[in-house]
Cobalt ABC transporter ATP-binding protein
Amino acid sequence: MIELSEALVTAWTPDPSGGPDTVTRLLGPVTLRLTERRVAVVGANGSGKSTLARLLNGLVLPSSGTVRVDGLDTRTDGPAVRRRVGFVFTDPDAQLVMPTPVEDVALSLRRSVPDAREREARARAALARIGLADRADLPVHALSGGQRQLLALTSVLATDPDVLVCDEPTTLLDLRWRAVVDDLLADLPQQVVVVTHDLDAALHAERVLVVDDGRVVHDGEPSAAVAAYRDLMTSSPVRSGEIR
């Protein structure tokens, strides 16, 4: 279970003229208990939703308050949290580090599978399950955007996390690959938290969080939450700021 208690994220902004630094609120304070199997997070660009996603596995630490996963504090138990919570970025190139798909998935297995030949066999089996068996030995850069996103997901899922957090995993994909990734996420046994601009996908979640100006402004049943988000986007002026 993921629990946020008064989690606040701030950043110091230096004064270029040499005056005192200022503190900018990026997110929060946020108090949540996420127990549902499928949770979607929606919000405008710059609303703070990606910061919220990164809090969940310790990529971002709260300036105050706490974030816990199964009782483990992201601030003091970071490695253990990250073993439980896998993270998928918007751009798969941000996390694919090996030359070929089979090597990338095998890298994820290095801690749990000591034998190199067994790692490779498991990696090939994982790629076969998502339809990339015939791409296993190609250069990663030769894959399409959708195939690279599937590879990124496979490399994270190879570590067998309890929770998967995805930060806009379909934003860079065309409609066909978006449907492939959405279907894959829907069938996973793990708890999945997805940050998304795809409101149709959000409607298939069990719970939707609406983030605006660094705060969770609506939290509830998908249809009501998406309606609240649509109302917010049509009634609020466009703001510039540093929240992400």
